[in-house]
Design brief:
The chain has two helices and 19 strands. Strands 1, 2, 3, 4 and 5 form a five-stranded antiparallel sheet that branches. Strands 6, 7, 8, 9 and 10 form a five-stranded antiparallel sheet that branches. A five-stranded antiparallel sheet has the order 11-12-13-14-18, with no helix packed on it. It starts with 12 loop residues before the first helix and ends in a 38-residue tail after the last strand. A hairpin with a 2-residue loop joins strand 7 and strand 8. It is mainly beta and 327 residues long. The longest helix is centred in the N-terminal third of the chain and has 17 residues. It has a single domain, classed as Tachylectin-2, Chain A (5 Propeller), CATH 2.115.10.20. One of its GO terms (biological process) is xylan catabolic process. Pfam families: Glyco_hydro_43 (PF04616). This is Glycoside hydrolase family 43.
């Protein structure tokens, strides 16, 4: 894409690594990948504007990449809109502009931070964190569109989850149940209803243990490596949570469990926003780190992509505003 310009001086290493991780994991998940030959992308793939928080989706033979957009001449993450890019070969990318912005939410005032798009019910749902005007705190909203490139509109007219929460990601299990995860310093989830814009029960915490999420040193208030930006997927009978680890700088780690992270010893319950009953959590997690280089060459096998197959994002941000970063 042109015109090119110098790389941003602000770097979002964790998000860049997360983007690479999510693509590799996603194409490993595909029954047969979209691309027949080895492809090497020109990095960064977007060189004419500042972008952050990439979250990919595979749909109908294309990879769609959803990002934030840092405004020029800003030193404090001035982000007013989200943008969409797509490719059929991982080399040539189309800029679809901005189909969603902070102004799309009547209740929001600032900060277009890290979100994710999933496809379901013949529609596309974009879960995003932004500042709630009434409280001045971050909240998770959801927008909907009939197309992966938009335009998107606010699906609710109010936040889906409030109380300073960011970094939403959605996982749809084999039984069709959808889950919304988010979190920093804690890892939260709720069960989404079939409409994808409401949930059942109350938000619950996944217990963060050092056995399951690694050991952090130097911060007694944060004993595990989990920092923020969860991304959940399933492969080979295991559930994976990929996340930004430690701070600062962050690196990518993942934890695995043989059962879905909503079963077993009772999860801690609290209140990000409205709810009665609560789910439980019983997962014996194992922690690992993921070494990923800054440039990656991926080999893809010939075949057809599964329609609406979601790529699993691993990207940072957090429910506490001070933890904001760059890619």
């Amino acid at each position: 894409m042109t015109p090119a310009r110098p790389r941003p001086t602000r770097t979002r290493l964790a998000r860049a690594v997360a983007w690479a991780a999510s693509l590799l994991l996603a194409f490993a998940l595909a029954p047969a990948a979209v691309f027949p030959t080895e492809a090497k992308a020109d990095n960064p793939i977007v060189q004419h504007i500042y972008t952050a928080d990439p979250a990919p989706l595979v749909y109908d033979g294309r990879v769609y990449l959803y990002t934030g957009h840092d405004e020029d001449n800003s030193t404090n993450y001035t982000m007013k809109e989200w943008r969409v890019w797509s490719t059929a070969d991982m080399v040539n990318w189309t800029d679809h502009g901005s189909p969603l912005s902070v102004a799309s939410f009547s209740w929001a005032s600032a900060n277009a931070w890290a979100g994710q798009v999933v496809s379901r019910n013949g529609k596309f749902y974009w879960y995003v964190p932004t500042t709630e005007r009434a409280t001045g705190r971050m909240a998770i909203g959801v927008a909907v569109s009939d197309s992966p490139t938009g335009p998107f509109r606010d699906a609710l007219g109010h936040p889906l989850v409030g109380n300073g929460e960011i970094d939403p990601t959605v996982f749809i299990d084999d039984d069709g149940q959808a889950y919304l995860y988010w979190g920093n310093p804690n890892l939260w989830y709720v069960r989404l209803n079939p409409d994808m814009i409401s949930y059942s029960g109350s938000p619950a915490k996944i217990p963060l243990t050092t056995a399951g999420f690694g050991t952090r040193t130097g911060d007694p208030n944060r004993p595990t490596l989990f920092e923020e930006g969860p991304w959940v997927y399933k492969r080979g009978g295991l559930y994976y949570i990929v996340y930004a680890a430690k701070c600062c700088s962050e690196f990518i780690a993942y934890s695995t469990a043989p059962v879905r992270p909503d079963r077993g010893p009772t999860a801690e319950r609290s209140c990000p926003r409205r709810a009665p009953a609560s789910p439980t959590t019983r997962a014996s997690w194992t922690s690992k780190t993921v070494p990923i280089s800054s440039t990656t060459t991926a080999r893809f096998r010939a075949g057809a992509a599964t329609p609406a197959r979601s790529l699993w994002r691993s990207s940072p941000t957090s429910p506490t505003a001070p933890s904001r970063r760059s890619t």
